[in-house]
Structure formats: structure tokens, C-alpha cells
């Protein structure tokens, strides 16, 4: 029995799914996004390098190259419209031996063919002038001024909120069990009932092969590729200003050292193929590898300032390229599969491309009243004394500091919970207003945040989760 009907259903609430939903919300059509977790940005999109790649690495002519450069070029306007953190800090790729100079030159030529602007190869001495902590072994570097850093939570949540504000529905805790082709569309069987869709957009990350294979005889295969990271305290945030890469190898771009938009220093990732698509456990061996390899690029990294480590799993498709577009033997079913690096950079452009394909298929016209703007979160820590005083006068909750490390107030947490697609878990609050992201990693602010979540949502304290069901923080009241 069909419970609901839509013109378009997006499967997956990561950055690509939310970008597609936001662009589809520009059109006069009924739209829904399905996400198996309790919030958007709960899979690959939550644990990555947070880099907006310039676009010199992808092989010219591939979808990775095309969408990377287009997505990079869209990021400034998107950040202004949706008010998320983004900075063009530039990126550099280091060469450590004269015999590897042809590889660096090849990257430069790739970048030119891909349309990347401002590329330059500089000497080792020059790059050390630009970045004093670059190691003495570096003989040359490729400099890409259009590279950037972004908050992956901020970008994904902003896209989702704007989509929802423009009419897109979001169904959380909804897993796709099967998809059946019917005469005029697809019936999507979920744990919460059956949904009919005239068109389906598969943006299911590491599960995109399984979703695709439900409807197509041309099978996809995704290999989960795990990467471990170390995050250092803000005290180390100025150790480098550029995103520092090493010459790419077989498994990708190697270990990077980069500032983050929040002022920390990020090291990683490793690249280890795993069998379990949900395996995000860090290992001592991989973290030691991060420390060892990052020291090849940058000297004097203060590893003692590490405040947390984490791991993400990216979706590596056997063809080593994005799989994007309508499936040949499944009309009205569209893939955004195999989206690994530079997927975060490419997401805005992928969203536009797929939304146009779907709208054309449906004959949908653009809305006259689409609102591309979204108001970002108040960041008390960035306000002047006078601005803080004005906020507190308007709402006294902004005067109650809950997270001392990040200077996050109760007013910010309440906003994170009550706004469009508001937080329903501790991770949901953290991703929106950065409560718990500081030096103590939520050691002192968890209990108060749980109290606020319970009060604002009506969820009993023992039902408050770190993220999805099964991660409850308390067992019972004493």
C-alpha cells in the first residue's frame, strides 16, 4: 500500500543528496529526501578532509574533473547565500625529489586542461617563504590559489535547510529496503512504508551501489575506503595557512596538513580498503601512519595538541570516477554514485546537473518564489562585546555559556534545535553550533546540552542519543 507520492525522491542526506534536493526545490514539483539516520550529514559527508579542491588532480575528461572545477567556482556565491563557513586559503602540492618533478608538471598540465586558474610551480625555497614550516626536503611545489576549506557540516546542513524552506520534505530514520519499477515510476519500500516516486535520485554514498543494483542489470560495486584523521587544538591552527598536499599516489592524495575553518589543524587521511561500510573505527596503526607521513611535509607539528581522532569511509567505485546521470536500463532513475574525493567540492555542481535532468524529464518549470537565501547560525564567539550585549538583551539565553571551549551559549543550542530540520541528537547540535568540538571534546557540556535537548524536544533524558537510536547516553534515573 502506497503511503505517499512524489514527483522526485532523493535517497541519501549527505552533501550530494542535499545539494540535489536544494536544486530540485527550485522547481514546481513534489519532493522528498529519505535518510536512514536521524539527521543529514551522518555518513561520508561528516568525516572528510573538508577541502574544496582546486581541480588539478582529476584526470581531464572525467566527471571528477568536470564537477570539481564547476563546484569550486560556485562555492563563494553559495557561501554568501547560505551563510556557511568557507575560505579560499589556497593549496600546495609538495615534491620531494628532482626525479618526481615530471609528476608535478603533469599535475600542473592537468589543472590547465581542467580550467583551474592561477596555478604556479615554485621552488622549494619559495614555498618555504610562503609556508615556513614546510620541510627542508621539499624541492618544489604546485600552488593553487583557488583551493579552499569549508565546514562540511555547515555546507550540508545549509543546503538541507534551504531545500526544506523551499518545500522539500525530509524523512529521517527511513531506510530503503527495496525499489520496484512500476509503469509510471518506482515504488520504494522502506522501514516506514511504501513511497511512490516518478523519479528517483540515488545519492546513498557507500550504499549507492546497493540502491542502483535494485533497479539495474548493469551492476555497480563500491569499495569502502577508510581514512583516519587527527584533529589538533586551535593553538596549532596557524601552523600552516595553505592546505598542504603530497604528490598523489595509488590510493589518492596522500596525507594532508591543513587549517580548518574553525581554527584547528587537521592531519590525514589514511586510505585502507575495508569490507564493512560502517567501519569508522580509528586504529593506532593508522593514526601512527598519519603522524609519520604528515611529518614528511610539515616540520614541528605539535602532535601533543591532538584533541581527537576520527575516521570516515568514502565510496570508491571500481571505475574510479563519479557515476552520474540517468541509468540506461532504468528510465527516470538517476545515479550520483561513487562520490569520493573531490565529492564535497563537486556537490553543488552535481546538484545543478541532476536537478536539471530530473526537471526536464518531468517537464517541471522553475518556481517564481524560490528563495536562495538562508540565515546562518549566530556565532557568539565571533561577536564583539557590544554585539553580545545586544543579543543577550534580546534573549538572555545568549548570556548562558554551555560549552566553554567553543564559547557556545544556550541561545545558540536552542536555535539549533528549533530551526528548520533542527537537531534531535547531541551530534546534531554539535554539527550545527560546534558545541563539544573544543579541547575537552564535550567532557563538561554534555549533560547540560542533554537537558536543553530534552526540554526543547520533549524527548526523555534516557532517550537522548549521541546520534542514531542505540546510542542513548543514559540508561535510567537513579
What is the CATH topology descriptor of the domain at 90-146 and 223-317? D-Amino Acid Oxidase, Chain A, domain 2
* Low-confidence region ranges: none
Kindly, what is the distance between the CA atoms of the first and last residues, rounded to a whole number of angstroms? 45 Å
- Number of discrete helical segments: 12
CATH architecture of the domain at 90-146 and 223-317: 2-Layer Sandwich
Structural class: alpha+beta
- What is the strand content? 15-25%
* CATH homologous superfamily designation of the domain at 90-146 and 223-317: D-Amino Acid Oxidase, subunit A, domain 2
- CATH C-level of the domain at 90-146 and 223-317: Alpha Beta
- Gyration radius from CA atoms, angstroms: 22 Å
Q: How many beta-strand segments?
A: 22
What percentage of residues falls in helices of 4 or more residues?
A: 25-40%
The average pLDDT value, as a whole number, equals: 96
- Main pleated-sheet profile: 8 strands, mixed
* Shape field: globular
Amino acid at each position: 500500500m502506497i503511503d505517499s507520492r512524489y514527483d522526485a525522491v532523493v535517497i541519501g542526506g549527505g552533501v550530494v543528496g542535499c545539494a540535489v534536493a536544494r536544486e530540485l526545490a527550485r522547481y514546481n514539483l513534489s519532493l522528498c529526501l529519505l535518510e536512514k539516520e536521524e539527521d543529514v550529514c551522518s555518513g561520508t559527508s561528516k568525516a572528510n578532509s573538508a577541502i574544496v579542491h582546486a581541480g588539478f588532480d582529476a584526470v581531464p575528461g572525467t566527471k571528477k574533473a568536470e564537477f570539481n572545477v564547476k563546484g569550486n567556482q560556485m562555492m563563494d556565491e553559495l557561501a554568501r547565500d547560505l551563510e556557511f563557513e568557507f575560505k579560499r586559503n589556497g593549496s600546495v602540492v609538495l615534491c620531494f625529489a628532482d626525479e618526481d618533478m615530471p609528476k608535478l608538471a603533469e599535475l600542473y598540465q592537468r589543472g590547465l586542461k581542467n580550467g583551474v586558474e592561477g596555478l604556479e610551480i615554485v621552488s622549494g625555497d619559495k614555498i618555504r617563504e610562503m609556508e615556513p614550516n614546510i620541510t627542508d626536503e621539499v624541492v618544489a611545489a604546485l600552488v593553487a590559489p583557488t583551493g579552499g576549506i569549508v565546514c562540511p557540516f555547515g555546507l550540508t546542513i545549509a543546503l538541507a535547510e534551504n531545500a526544506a524552506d523551499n518545500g522539500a520534505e525530509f524523512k529521517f530514520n527511513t531506510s530503503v529496503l527495496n525499489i520496484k519499477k512500476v509503469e509510471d515510476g518506482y515504488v520504494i519500500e522502506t522501514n516506514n512504508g511504501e513511497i511512490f516516486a516518478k523519479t528517483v535520485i540515488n545519492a546513498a554514498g557507500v550504499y549507492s551501489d546497493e540502491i542502483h543494483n535494485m533497479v539495474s542489470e548493469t551492476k555497480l560495486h563500491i569499495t569502502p575506503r577508510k581514512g583516519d584523521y587527527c584533529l589538533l587544538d586551535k593553538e596549532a591552527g596557524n601552523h600552516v595557512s595553505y592546505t598542504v598536499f603530497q604528490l598523489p599516489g595509488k590510493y589518492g592524495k596522500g596525507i594532508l596538513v591543513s587549517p580548518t575553518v574553525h581554527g584547528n589543524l587537521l592531519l590525514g587521511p589514511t586510505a585502507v580498503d575495508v569490507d564493512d561500510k560502517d567501519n569508522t573505527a580509528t586504529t593506532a596503526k593508522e593514526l601512527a601512519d598519519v603522524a609519520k607521513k604528515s611529518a614528511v611535509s610539515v616540520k614541528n607539528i605539535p602532535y601533543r595538541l591532538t584533541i581527537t581522532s576520527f575516521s570516515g569511509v568514502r565510496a570508491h567505485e571500481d571505475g574510479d570516477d563519479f557515476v552520474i546521470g540517468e541509468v540506461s536500463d532504468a528510465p527516470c532513475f538517476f545515479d550520483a554514485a561513487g562520490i569520493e574525493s573531490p565529492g564535497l567540492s563537486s556537490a553543488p555542481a552535481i546538484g545543478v546537473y541532476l536537478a536539471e535532468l530530473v526537471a526536464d524529464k518531468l517537464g517541471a518549470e522553475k518556481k517564481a518564489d524560490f528563495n536562495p537565501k538562508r540565515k546562518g547560525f549566530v556565532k557568539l564567539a565571533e561577536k564583539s562585546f557590544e554585539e553580545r550585549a545586544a543579543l543577550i538583551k534580546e534573549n538572555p539565553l545568549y548570556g548562558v555559556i554551555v560549552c566553554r571551549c567553543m564559547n557556545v551559549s544556550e541561545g545558540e543550542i536552542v536555535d539549533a534545535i528549533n530551526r528548520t530540520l533542527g537537531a534531535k541528537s547531541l551530534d546534531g547540535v554539535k554539527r550545527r553550533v560546534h558545541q563539544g568540538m573544543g579541547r575537552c571534546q564535550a567532557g563538561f557540556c554534555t549533560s547540560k546540552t542533554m537537558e536543553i535537548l530534552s526540554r526543547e524536544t520533549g524527548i526523555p533524558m534516557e532517550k537522548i542519543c549521541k546520534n542514531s537510536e542505540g546510542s542513548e547516553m543514559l540508561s535510567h534515573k537513579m
